Amino acid sequence: MDPAQLADASRLRTRATVLHADADSFFAAVEQRDKPSLRGRPVLVGGTGPRGVVSTASYEARRAGARSAMSMSRARRLTPAAAVLFPRFEAYSAYSRLIMATLGTLSELVEPLSIDEAFVDLEAGPFADDPAAAATDVRARIRELTGLAVSIGVGRTKLVAKLASDAGKPDGLLVVEPADEDDFLLPLPVRAVPGIGPATAAALERLDVRTVADLRRQPLDILTMTVGESSGVNLFRLARGIDPRPVAPSGERKSVGAERTFAQDIFGTDLIAAAVDRVTDEALRRLTAHGGGARTVVAKVRFADFTTLTRSVTLPQPTAEPAELRAAAHQAARAAGISDSVRLLGVSFHNLSAHAQLTLPWGTEEFDPAVVDEPTDGPVVLGLLSEENARPGLDIEHDTLGRGWVVHVRGRQATVRFEGVDTPPARSQVLDLDADPLRLVPPLAPTTDA
């Protein structure tokens, strides 16, 4: 491919009309919104067991060095005063729906990327001539409706819009006009470019490539020899701000799945098979929520030494049959050659199809299909609160004291706070569960009159 043709490729747009919105520290921000006593305090959301992983760290926790994907034990050492909470995906989904609906007032072309971020094509709405005003207005309306901060970037391409929203965090707005793209892009570290992970960054480091400006100076043939044909061409384009991808709201999810990190490594055929069944059950429920079926089943296995393998099984045609998908999950797990202690197991469904038909009734429990790889410590069963089903941060209700949330449970003693979005911060109370039974309840959906 001619490098000149790549460098001169049409950028399609002549003005900054692609908007990227990203809710700041989303899970932790929702928890701080719903729990007044946590506002301004460090919060860690994720697996709460000894092998848990941080899903989201509040900005107060980040300042101490905690971050997502870090082991919860390490994050706790860095932020010993942090509140550690189990994820409440039902609450996050409710806030997400409000955010996405508000973004939808800007344009009919909204492309959700995950539960907390989306692209918006302002050219398809009434705000193409004043993207800064549109972004300012929608940020204010999201804050009014949800109480949450959303960072927004606007640019001529998805690449620039995404990098601009990252640069504006937290709670910021940055519009990068086409004439200012090079001034914005070239000083950025090369790791800021989407798709450049540790391995690619290490390969580029050997070429003394540390910034986007360094990357742009590399000839196309050097990049393709270093990182491969496809990646090299892509990096050559991105270094020049060339990204013709449209905002595509009809884009379907590529996968749904679940994974679990075990409190203790598991070993042995029977234990591993039972664990595959449990994780597959979770993935199947999410596939049900998504609708349709899948053709490819992927098993992810992380061993005690942190070696991680993935293996896949592709079926002749998409199916929603639980038995077929479960059998494929076991086949994929066996293909990973499990012969050592297992730290983590994951099962995900790919090549999704809306046309596969369900033939067996599945459970009615709702799961958000936008959430994959949730850091669970085991399933939560609603009902009377006990030490077995208690998780810090879950919603509870008392017959006379009202709603609150779990701090912790030891034996039959429950420490809780009775507070909510519209109440003052509450002190912790210790209740005897025999004398004062508490019920685990679903989160309250955020109201639109906030």
UniProtKB/TrEMBL annotation:
Cross-referenced SUPFAM superfamilies: DNA/RNA polymerases, Lesion bypass DNA polymerase (Y-family), little finger domain
The protein's required cofactors: Mg(2+)
Cofactor binding: number and manner: Binds 2 magnesium ions per subunit.
EC annotation from Swiss-Prot or TrEMBL: 2.7.7.7
Alphabetical UniProt keywords: Cytoplasm, DNA damage, DNA repair, DNA replication, DNA-binding, DNA-directed DNA polymerase, Magnesium, Metal-binding, Mutator protein, Nucleotidyltransferase, Transferase
Residue intervals of the UmuC domain: 18-197
Annotated site location: Substrate discrimination: F27
Entry annotated with the keyword Nucleotidyltransferase: yes
Residues that hold Mg(2+) according to the record: D22, D116
Active site annotation, chain numbering: E117
Catalytic reaction list: DNA(n) + a 2'-deoxyribonucleoside 5'-triphosphate = DNA(n+1) + diphosphate
First-listed, main subcellular location of the protein, grouped into a coarse class: cytoplasm
A GO MF label: DNA-directed DNA polymerase activity
InterPro entries: DNA/RNA_pol_sf, DNA_pol_Y-fam_lit_finger_sf, DNA_pol_Y-fam_little_finger, DNA_polymerase-Y, DNApol_IV, IMS_HHH_1, Rev_trsase/Diguanyl_cyclase, UmuC
Protein localization: Cytoplasm
Gene3D superfamilies, A to Z: 3.30.70.270, 3.40.1170.60, 5' to 3' exonuclease, C-terminal subdomain, DNA polymerase, Y-family, little finger domain
Subunit and partners: Monomer.
Protein family per UniProt: Belongs to the DNA polymerase type-Y family.
Known function: Poorly processive, error-prone DNA polymerase involved in untargeted mutagenesis. Copies undamaged DNA at stalled replication forks, which arise in vivo from mismatched or misaligned primer ends. These misaligned primers can be extended by PolIV. Exhibits no 3'-5' exonuclease (proofreading) activity. May be involved in translesional synthesis, in conjunction with the beta clamp from PolIII.
PANTHER family in the record: DNA POLYMERASE KAPPA, DNA REPAIR POLYMERASE UMUC / TRANSFERASE FAMILY MEMBER
Name this protein carries in UniProt: DNA polymerase IV
Species of the source: Cellulomonas humilata
Gene: dinB
